[in-house]
Design goal:
With 451 residues, the protein is mostly helical. It is 74% helix and 0% strand.
């Protein structure tokens, strides 16, 4: 039973993880905002001021007023969603400045920046990536523009599942960014997870969580989901359990308790395994047959057979558990362990009748014999023997012989014990019964003579 239960619960973890998928369980890609540095300043010095005092001031060419005015027209068209006009204006801008009037590096950076935004807005991610790469290729970028571009480019690498380049770009961004937000650490964790750098990913998550606490922010659910995935794929079950406990406390729902139960099962922590699943059961979250059967197995494993039987009985009454042979037999087994043998017999009879299984009839005969239901035991034993006798036909013959003896049918009992004695495993007990029967037959004959 334990092996079947563990197999089911490992499946619960995998189903939970795959159901969420990478995008949902990790991080939704944040929408790119306006290009890194809309043309709202006339010089690189203004850009540097916005980047913060700690950002190194760079020698950057100025943005000429006439170029600024044309870029403002591009901005207006782009914000209105007229991307064709915006592209046409950018092409005209580049064509209109040549020779001594050619666009300087900062002006070119703004042009490519606008192209990136236009392409991204149309979901043309490869084109947007190339445009942002051209921005970074320009020398002397203002600090704010470089940091914004690197982060946007990293996001686009994530959107196109180019995880290695995303990780490298984010690492370069972290070297120049001031006080990175928790979300940035999570994005880096996501990229490291995707390239198999699990330890780095967990370190990124820890730093993101710490930064959130420093800012007085509550950690987000999807951060824990990412931590859960990384921990589980790394094989760190104890950390997986810890993450799931946090999820279950802060966002209580069925999946978290079911998966937590499964993880504790893999850790061989049966009390916590049961406790987590029982919370889900008592909350009314377990509605599928396999879940209720798992709950019953957990109760059986914890020596709570009566609860196991009630889970299945109530499930059948509610139409959630099929009244099939296996489930009926499981209820019978649970009731027998709970020492409610007469109720157990009812379920085992139904199970045996449905299954037509020799072993099931043999077990039923044994239980009926224990409950002094000898007539029924004879019938069940003979049905079992007609199907082969189960795993131990010799033992079934012994049960049949004992039931027949109880009914005073000594000749039939002798035949059953004789057949059982042909198997070395039952030879001794069969011989003892045959001697006993001979004695009883002689005693009965003596009594008859005296009367």
């Amino acid at each position: 039973m334990n092996g079947a239960l563990q197999g089911r619960q490992r499946g619960a973890i995998r189903r939970g993880l795959s159901r969420l998928g990478v995008a949902a369980a990790l991080l939704a890609l944040p929408a790119l905002l306006a290009p890194a540095g809309w043309p709202g300043a006339s010089s690189a010095r203004a850009e540097d001021a916005r980047a913060g005092q700690a950002q190194e001031t760079r020698r950057t060419p100025t943005l000429r007023n006439e170029v600024h005015a044309k870029l403002a027209d591009v901005q207006k068209a782009a914000e209105a969603g007229d991307f064709a006009t915006a592209e046409r204006l950018l092409a005209a801008l580049q064509a209109g400045f040549s020779g001594k009037r050619a666009l300087n590096s900062y002006e070119l950076a703004n042009v490519h920046n606008f192209y990136a935004y236009i392409y991204y807005s149309q979901q043309k991610h490869p084109e947007a990536i190339r445009a942002y790469e051209k921005v970074l290729a320009q020398p002397g970028l203002p600090g704010a523009m470089e940091t914004g571009t690197r982060y946007s480019l990293a996001q686009l690498y994530v959107a196109t599942a180019d995880w290695k380049r995303a990780a490298a770009m984010l690492e370069s961004w972290f070297r120049i960014a001031e006080e990175p937000a928790p979300e940035a650490w999570m994005l880096l964790a996501q990229t490291n997870y995707q390239i198999g750098e699990y330890d780095r990913a967990l370190g990124n998550i820890d730093k993101g969580m710490a930064e959130a606490r420093r800012r007085g922010m509550a950690p987000k659910e999807n951060w824990y989901l990412l931590a859960r995935m990384v921990s589980y794929d790394k094989g760190d079950l104890r950390r997986t359990a810890s993450v799931l406990e946090a999820l279950a406390r802060q966002w209580p729902r069925k999946d978290y308790f079911v998966q937590l139960s499964a993880i504790h099962g893999e850790l061989k922590d049966e009390p916590r395994q049961l406790a987590a699943m029982e919370v889900a059961y008592l909350a009314g979250w377990l509605g599928e047959e396999r879940e209720l059967v798992n709950m019953a197995y957990l109760y059986l494993g914890a020596d709570m057979p009566w609860k196991a039987a009630r889970v299945l009985e109530q499930g059948m009454e509610a139409g959630k558990v099929e009244a099939g042979a296996k489930n009926l037999e499981l209820i019978g087994i649970a009731l027998r362990q709970a020492r409610e043998n007469r109720r157990a017999i009812v379920y085992l009879e139904r199970a045996a009748a449905l299954a037509g299984d020799a072993e099931m009839w043999a077990r039923l005969a044994n239980l009926q014999l224990d409950e002094d239901a000898s007539e029924q035991a004879v019938e069940a034993a003979r049905k079992a023997l007609a199907m082969g006798g189960g795993r131990r036909p010799d033992h079934t013959q012994v049960v049949l012989g004992m039931a027949l003896y109880n009914l005073g049918r000594y000749d039939e009992a002798r035949a059953a014990f004789t057949e059982a004695g042909h198997d070395p495993r039952s030879e001794q007990v069969a011989t003892q019964w045959l001697h006993f029967l001979q004695t009883e037959i002689a005693r009965a004959a003596q009594l008859a003579q005296e009367l």
